[in-house]
Protein: UDP-galactopyranose mutase
Amino acid sequence: MSIAKGLPEGFNPSAYDAIVVGAGYAGAVCARRLAEACGYKVAVLERRDHIAGNAYDYYDEAGILVHKYGPHIYHTYNERVNQYLSRFTDWVDYQHKVLANIHGTLMPVPFNHTSLKLAFGEEKGEHLYQKLVAAFGQDKKVPIMELRAKNDPELAEVADYVYENVFLHYTMKQWGKTPDQIDPAVMGRVPVFVGDDDRYFPQAPFQGMPKDGYTAMFDRMLNHDLISVFTGVDARDILQMGGTSVKVCGQPFGGEVIYTGALDELFGMDLGALPYRTVDMVFETLPVDQFQPVGTVNYTVSENFTRITEFKNMTGQVVPGKTTIMREYSRTYLPGMGETPYYVINEPQNIELYRRYLERVSGVLNFHVVGRLAEYRYYDMDGVVASALELSDEIIGNH
Structure:
């Protein structure tokens, strides 16, 4: 692999069999698989000045490994995804736990046995828990809509508490909505966990942190003699969409193009901008060994930020006397301003707008869209990898 900043003078697209736009999960997985399985020479074009997309991590001035674009917690049920990524990293065991700061008391979320006793007191909390066990069994996730369906005032009280203190205000901050704008069907899916397991992903068989960090994992994935990575390159400056073909640097390109960016940006947002939520992330290094007991604390009823992440609690890094935390402030994404679009706003009119953009590329030969932005959907990391594996399967199968 070679990594260069910018395109070299005289860059010749026809020297490559495939052009991949984006060096995040979708792009890196596809680039590696096409190089290995097809012997393709691949050019990866990355707008940012680094690889690894939103999973990019680096050592800050305090020497602490931080995630620049927010906490990335690896977990998956997909054995193929896990096997593929494990080629490029060893894993450090990490079982993610989240606490909610509810009026100054830290309670596990999803709401569980411990949370009930903290919220309602030891005796009443245990009583409510036993009612939940009797109604639903142990180690079950039960949506609060199902609690209400029992027509039991005490179970309804649990549902109301979780809705008000765990979900409602947090959702208002996260999505910029008022209570009447929040879909009751979404509210009804908020779970209570009838059990003591306080892990955030209790059923996921594969979870942890990459031993040397995410960026190192991507570096290994892209480290192939047939892959060249060019950072600081905005593909919109050299890609031209026309009819059923793609031009690169003004010349027709006959190879595969894998596009992982936002489709509306590819067309200058001429049909309108696809809406997202973005997040302002504020980092702070503190002169203490540990700031909070777990990796993530959600502020569900107070503060104007949504959560605080403490990276050492996730990576297991030992740095005595100092720690770096990050606060997240959710707000509306402003298109065309260089901001990072994080969360798709999954409403019918937005999905329809995306489909209109997608129709404009659907007839373009050998042009493929994959990933969180290009597919306009929210993915966990493993979902992006699974989608990229499926796309590359298809391209390899047609090779």
Notes: The two ends are 23 Å apart (CA to CA).
